[in-house]
Amino acid sequence: MHQRARSAEDKARRADDLLKAAEALARELGGVRYVTLAAVTERVGLHRTGVRRYYASKEELLLELAERSWGQWRDAIRSAAGDRTGLGPARTAAVISETLVALPVFCDLQTHVTLYLEGDVDIDRARRYKTNAFAAHDEIATTLDRASTMTIEQIADLLAAAIMLAAGFWQVSHPTPTLAALYEQEPRWGHVALDFGPRLKGLLEACAVGLDSARSDR
């Protein structure tokens, strides 16, 4: 029989196990929309009612996963940028797109955060998410500002575009089984064939170059 986590360290470890299980299931099942608390608790060997000791709801669990993913993206940007300097717009965009493609669950979560996750938790939990997400965003912008020839304002615009494009393209390229079957029947609607990574990279590069050109034209 699995025992209840008693110490603060045990509780933190069990909460971390639940997050890892939710992320793994999202990858395996094709999106966070398919993740259930029952599946998450089964994966970690916890009774399904036991999850309430760590997260009040599935929404809170997924919001916690989104918050953690912001930190993962920040760390990936830092690693990719390293000590480089003088990155032009196209290379700056490539760093952003390549790190996003490597974090598919984060891209998926960006849609769900906006649609309902932030709104379905209490205000203190929503505040904590916003605080940590914005802090990670600002650190990402600062890292890219040091590495890139783009201005901090341009980088902020590029990051906004990156999040919106990544969220939308991820959903389009990972349709529900019903839509996938429909696209097989109607190939002309088959935007399921959208290649997430290359399309994101190409459009972000175009956006970055356009932002830089707009500055040059002033």
Automatic annotation (TrEMBL):
Residues 36-55 bind DNA. Keywords: DNA-binding. The keyword Repeat does not apply. It comes from the Bacteria. Residues 12-73 form the HTH tetR-type domain. The keyword Aminoacyl-tRNA synthetase does not apply. GO terms for molecular function: DNA binding. This is HTH tetR-type domain-containing protein. It comes from Streptomyces malaysiensis.
